[in-house]
């Protein structure tokens, strides 16, 4: 693994600690925590909506709502655990905790990106179906 260095006033490299490297994430920990809670709450609301529609109306066609709710809960859990690992990394100068925080953030970005792409595809399909239905 490459070592992280900083330059001092004379241009010489000094190795950075895990605490110093994790500082930007540590400073954003409250945002990560808040967004994780909001994501989990949104997921719970969507799953409850899906269950009400499923058992009340028998609307299996709304299964994607439940799936989106589950993805929101997963994203919230990833962001929360990344926030906790960032705090641990910063407070204990733990490089492995920083590694785990970054791995969880990488997964969060991948899942979130895929969900955005799938949402855009679903919107295009919906718009095509609606415009075809109107004509």
Layout of helices and strands, plus pairs?
Layout: E1 5-7, E2 13-15, H1 18-21, H2 23-27, H3 29-57, H4 63-92, H5 95-134
Antiparallel strand pairs: 1-2
Helix pairs in contact: 3-4, 4-5
Give a verbal description of the structure.
With 135 residues, the chain is mainly alpha-helical. The chain has one domain (5-134). Helices cover 80% and strands 4% of the residues. The protein has a two-stranded antiparallel sheet with strand order 1-2. β1 and β2 form a beta hairpin. It is elongated. The relative contact order is 0.12. The mean pLDDT is 87.
Quick structural gist:
The chain has one domain. It has 5 helices and 2 strands, in the order ββααααα. The protein has helices spanning 18-21, 23-27, 29-57, 63-92, 95-134; strands spanning 5-7, 13-15.
In terms of per-residue confidence, which ranges show pLDDT below 50 for 5 or more consecutive residues?
none
Shape estimate: elongated
Spatial separation of the terminal alpha carbons = 60 Å
Q: Would you list the SSEs in sequence order as H and E?
A: EEHHHHH
Strand portion, in percent? under 5%
Radius of gyration: 21 Å
* Helix count, DSSP H or I runs of 4 or more residues: 5
Biggest sheet overview: 2 strands, antiparallel
- Broad structural category: mainly alpha
């Amino acid at each position: 693994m490459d070592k992280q260095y900083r330059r001092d006033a004379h241009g010489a490299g000094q190795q950075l600690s895990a605490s110093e490297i994790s500082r930007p994430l540590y400073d954003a920990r409250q945002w990560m925590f808040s967004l994780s809670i909001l994501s989990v709450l949104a997921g719970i609301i969507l799953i409850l909506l899906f269950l009400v529609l499923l058992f009340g109306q028998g609307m299996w066609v709304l299964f994607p709502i439940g799936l989106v709710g589950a993805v929101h809960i997963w994203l919230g859990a990833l962001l929360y655990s990344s926030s906790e690992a960032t705090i641990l990394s910063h407070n204990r100068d733990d490089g492995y905790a920083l590694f785990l925080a970054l791995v969880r953030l990488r997964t969060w970005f991948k899942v979130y990106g895929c969900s955005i792409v799938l949402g855009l595809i679903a919107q295009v399909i919906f718009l095509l179906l609606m415009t075809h239905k109107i004509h």
